Amino acid sequence: MKRDAKIYVAGHRGMVGSAIVRKLHERGYSNVIGRSSGELDLTQQTAVNEFMAFEKPDYVFMAAARVGGIHANNTYRADFIYDNLIIEANITKAAAQAGVTRMLFLGSSCIYPRDCRQPIREEDLLTGALEATNEPYAIAKIAGIKLCESFNRQYGTSYVSAMPTNLFGPNDNYDLENGHVLPALIRKAHEAKLRGDSTYTVWGSGHPMREFLYVDDMADACIFLMENDEIRDGLFNIGTGRDVTIRELAQAVMEVVGFAGEIVFDSTKPDGTPRKLLDVSKMREMGWQAKTDLREGIALAYADFLARQNGG
Fold it and tell me: Which is nearest to 89 in space by CA: 141, 35, 30, 128?
């Protein structure tokens, strides 16, 4: 990518989108554009078509999506499948019509089967049943991957898909009901510390294993893929290649936050997929790997949470 190329980051105010914008600016890209949801409703096809036709970006990062944790995915199933399907369809079609030949679609590791072999390889897509709690979201993301593949085959575009593991970091959603597990744990531990509680409650059994990636590393991987002109198509797992149990994660959060109590697991709440570790050898063979240690990332995320609490 040329440093003066026009780059549109869809979802530039979200956790991943804002990280991509930060990284692009750090690398000297000077013509990065974005639109807030108030300025551009990505679920409205005509509005998206008009925006793309007017701006004619050279590159597009599709980081806009409706996202949430297990509770949100399982509760708002219709919203998750509809909004994500229509957003990715509108952006992909409008980009192609505007002559955008290079785009990165941001997916999710939940696209893979619930009982997939570990670590999960890219070719494991569509080889088994999905996890029931987030199936609508996963189906929407699979459709996004297939949109990219189909446009590449029919129109000769170079749209690639990046599948991140569980992300966390600045601009995360720390809501206890609708947020993902790590930011929710940060908030729970912080509030338990402030109240002087002796325990804090974690959903599920604590046994499932998860892999976590600091969002700035994800942004770095996305730009790496877009800067490599030899990558014209395909699906790429983005992660660390290491996982921890939810119990170990909760303990690490407690230590960073400074909460000295005990963990209580609420087994009435769902665990989700038993294990979800990505095989990231494809990215490593191309020369990319994550740099941020989990504990370091949690400390950075906690600092972001505190800044938000203080109005920063």
Answer: 141
Q: Take residue 69 and report the two structure tokens written for it.
A: 């944790």
Contact indicator for 23, 220 with CB cutoff of 8 Å? yes
Per annotation, catalytic residue among 112, 137, 214, 302: 137
Determine the Cα–Cα distance for residues 172 and 168; give it in Å rounded to an integer: 6
Share of the chain above pLDDT 70, in %: 100
Domains of the chain by start residue, with CATH: 7-172+212-242+276-292 (3.40.50.720)
Number of H helices and E strands in the chain, helices first, is: 10, 13
What pLDDT score was predicted for residue 51?
98
**pTM given for the model:** 0.93
User: CA 98, 15, 283, 106: dihedral to nearest 10 degrees?
Assistant: -40
What is the β-pairing status of strands 209-210 and 244-245? Answer: antiparallel
Q: Is 304:256 a contact under the CB 8 Å cutoff?
A: no
Spatial CA neighbour of 147 closest among 76, 92, 110 = 92
On whether the CB atoms of residues 302 and 186 are closer than 8 A, the answer is yes
**Residue 137 annotated in active site:** yes
